Amino acid sequence: MPLSDKQRKFLRTRAHTLKPVVWVAQQGLKPTVLDEIDGALSYHELIKVKVSVGDRDARDTLIGEICGHAGAELVQRIGNIAVLYRKNPEKPVIELPRG
Predict the structure, then answer these.
(1) Which of 7, 40, 88, 96 has the fewest beta carbons under 10 Å from its own?
(2) How far from chain centre, in Å, is Cα 92?
(3) Under 8 Å between Cβ of 86 and 72
C-alpha cells in the first residue's frame, strides 16, 4: 500500500532525529547488507540508510533495489541519505495517521 502525503510527512518528521543504521559503500549491495536492512526494518520500521555510491543516478538505482528487495517504501531521499519505511505486521511500532 503506497503512503499518502500525510503519512510521508509524519514519517519524515519522525525520521528527522534518526541516524543512519546501515551504510552502503563502493562494494554495493551484498547479501549481508540486505539482511541488515531487512532486520533493521523489521525491528524499527523506519530507518535511514547512507548510500555512498557514485553519482545521483547510481544512488537512485541502488535505493530502488533496496526498496524492492526489502519491500519498503522510500519516504525521503536527501543527498546520499534515504529514509525507508516498512510496517511490521506482527509487532507494529509506528502508528501511521490515516491518509
Answers:
(1) 88
(2) 16
(3) yes
Tell me if the pTM is above 0.90: yes
Distance of alpha carbon 99 from alpha carbon 97, whole angstroms: 6
In this structure, the number of other CB atoms found within 10 A of the CB of residue 21 comes to: 17
Which runs of consecutive H residues, i.e. helices, occur in 1-99? 5-15, 31-44, 56-70
Q: Exposed, middle or buried: residue 48 (CB in 10 Å: 0-12, 13-18, 19+)?
A: buried
Residue 68, pLDDT score: 96
For 5-85, the fitting CATH number among 2.60.40.1880, 3.40.50.720, 3.30.110.60, 3.10.20.600 is 3.30.110.60
